[in-house]
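Q: I have two molecules that I believe assemble together. Could you output C-alpha cells for the complex as a whole instead of separate predictions?
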Amino acid sequence: MAINAEHELHGRRRSRNVGLGLVLVGFIAIVFGLTVVKVKQLGAVQGFDHVVRPEMLPGEEAPK
Amino acid sequence: MTDMTVQAPEHEAQFGDYFALLKPRVMTLVVFTAFAGMLVAPVSLHPFVGFCAILFIAVGGGASGALNMWWDADIDAVMKRTRKRPVPSGRVTGSEALAIGLALSGFSVVMLGLATNWLAAGLLAFTIFFYVVVYSMWLKRTTPQNIVIGGAAGAFPPMIGWVAATGSISLESVLMFSLIFLWTPPHFWALALFMRSDYDDAGVPMLTVTHGRPATRRHILAYTIILAAFAVWLGFTSAGGPVYLVAAIALNAWFLKGAWDIFRRDEVMAEADNYTTEKAFFKFSLLYLFIHFGALLADAALRAGGLI
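A: Yes, here they are, computed for all two components at once.
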C-alpha cells in the first residue's frame, strides 16, 4: 500500500532539502570550474601514449 | 495496522535559519573588503578563481559566525539585539550550530588552499581560530579591550584577499589590516556611548562600564589619531593612488575632528543634545570604511585602465 498522504512536516522540510540540494549542485559546479581553470593554466599537456617522444630523449642525442 | 506518530519539534529549522547562523550581514563586509584586497594586489587572479576565493573566505567567515553563535548562545539569549538568533530562539540546536561551524571551517580552509595557496588558507584558519577561541571563548567576557581584539578578526579578510592573489604578506596587506583593526574600537565605542547597551546584563565587560565614559572618549581619540596615520600611510604604498590619497586625507581630517569633539564633551553636554555628536561620528564611521576601500578599488581600476 502506497503512502500518499503528505504530512505538513514534509512541506516544512522541503526548504531544507531544496536548499541543501542547490548548495551541493553549486559545489559541484565550483569544483568542475576550478578544475577547468587550473588545467588550462598548465598550458599544453601531452598525454602518455606508449610512443617515443623525441623531445624527451637525453640532450646528447640532439643534433648540433 | 499500527499507529505511527511523528514527533515534530515545535520550531523546525528552515534553510534560512541555517543561513542566518553564518551572519549574512557581517559576511557582506567580509566579501567587500576581501574583494578590495584581492583587486588592489599587483598580481591578478583568473576571475573564476578570484570569485571562488572570495566565496571561500566568506564561508570561512560565516563558519566562525556559526561557532560564535554556538558558544555565545547563553549571552545571546539575554541581550535584546541577539535574542532572535537561531540558537537562542530554539530554531537550531547548539550542537547543530557547532557541527555546521566546524564542517564549513574545514571546508572553506581546504578549498581556499586548493583554489589559491596555503598561506591564504592558513590565514583563514587562523582568523577562524582567533575569532572563535581567542575572542569569543577567552577574551570577550574577561576584558574591556574585547572590541579591540574582536576587530583583529574582522581585519583579516582584505589581507587574505591580497595573499590569495600574491602568495605573500606585504606592507600593503598589513596596512589594510591596520585600517580595519584600528577603525573598529572608535566605531564600536561611539556606539557604546549613545546606546544604553544590555551587555551589562549579559556580563560582558564594556569600556564604558568598566572604565567609565570619559575614559572611553579618550580611547576613541587615541585610536583615531593612530588610525589616521596608518590610513594615510596606505596611500603612499603601491596599493594606494591619487583617489585614495585625497579620500583618506579628507575622511581622516573629518574623523579626527569628530573624535576631538567627542573627547571635548562630557555626559552633561552629550545628554543635553541627545548624543548628536556621538551619533554623527558613528554614522560617519560606516561611510569612512566603505569609502576607503571604495577608493582603493577606484585606484586599482585606474591602474588597470592605464590612467595612472
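A: One point stands out. Residues 62 and 276 of chain B are 34 Å apart (CA to CA).
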